[in-house]
Amino acid sequence: MNPTLARQLPLLRGNVHAVRAQTRVAVRPNFASVRRSFSVDNDDSHDDFKTIRKKYEAKDKGSGNVKDLIAETIASKPVVVFMKGTPSAPQCGFSATVVRILQMQGLKDFKGVNVLEDDTIRNGIKEYTNWPTIPQVFVNKEFIGGCDIMRSMHESGELKTLLQESGVISATAEAK
C-alpha cells in the first residue's frame, strides 16, 4: 500500500466520524418507524386498497345466522355456484371449469356467489356442506360437489341427466 495513502486513511475516517457527530446522522435507519408507516389505522386510504365491504353484512346481522343466509341463497335459483369470482369473470381455474361445464350443458341462467367478497360466506359454505374446497355447486338446493365431481359427472353424462331430471334444462338441450 502507498505509505502516503495509508497515513491519509485514518484522517479521512476520523473526519467522517466528526462530521457525522456534528450533523447527528443516524448510523442505522430506524426500522420501528418504517414498520409503523405501513399500518393503516383509519379508513382514509384509496378505494383500491380498502378491504372489500361485506356484501352480506346487513343480511347477516339481521338473520344472525350465516347458515340461514346460505340456505336462502341456495333456494334463490335452481343452480347456485359458490365460486371464486363471478360466472363472467372467474378468478380461479376450478371455478372457471365449473362455469364452462354448466355452459356446455346448455345452462345459461345460474347464480354465482363470489366467496372472495366475504370471508364469512367463504368459511360458512365450507361448514354448511362439510366440504373443504371451492367451488361448490347446488342443483335444486342439493349439494352436488366441486370441480372434480362436476367434471366426472359431465364426462359420464350423469350431469346432463341430473339437470334434465331436475327440470333445470330441457331434455332437448344438447351439450356442446
What would you call the structural class? alpha+beta
- Give a short account of the largest sheet: 4 strands, mixed
Order of helices and strands: HHHHEEEHEHEEHH
Q: Looking at CATH, which topology of the domain at 57-165 would you report?
A: Glutaredoxin
Q: Helicity, in percent?
A: 40-55%
Gap between N and C termini: 82 Å
**Total number of β-strand segments?**
6
Q: Unreliable runs, pLDDT <50, ≥5 residues?
A: 29-41, 50-63
GO molecular function, one term: 2 iron, 2 sulfur cluster binding
Protein name: Monothiol glutaredoxin-5, mitochondrial
Organism: Planoprotostelium fungivorum
Domain Glutaredoxin: 79-144
Question: Summary?
Answer:
This protein has about 180 residues and is of the alpha+beta class. Helix content is about 50%, strand content about 10%. The longest helix is centred in the first third of the chain and has 21 residues, at about 5-25.
Structure description:
- Residues 79-144 form the Glutaredoxin domain.
- It comes from Planoprotostelium fungivorum.
- This is Monothiol glutaredoxin-5, mitochondrial.
- The protein is of the alpha+beta class.
- It has a domain at 57-165: Glutaredoxin, CATH 3.40.30.
- 49% of the residues lie in helices and 12% in strands.
- The chain is built from eight helices and six strands, in the order H-H-H-H-E-E-E-H-E-H-E-E-H-H.
- It has helices at 3-23, 31-37, 57-63, 66-75, 93-104, 119-129, 147-156, 158-165; strands at 79-83, 85-86, 89-90, 111-114, 136-139, 142-145.
- Strands 4-1-5-6 form a four-stranded mixed sheet.
- The protein is globular.
- The N and C termini lie far apart (82 Å).
- Mean pLDDT is 77; it is low at 29-41 and 50-63.
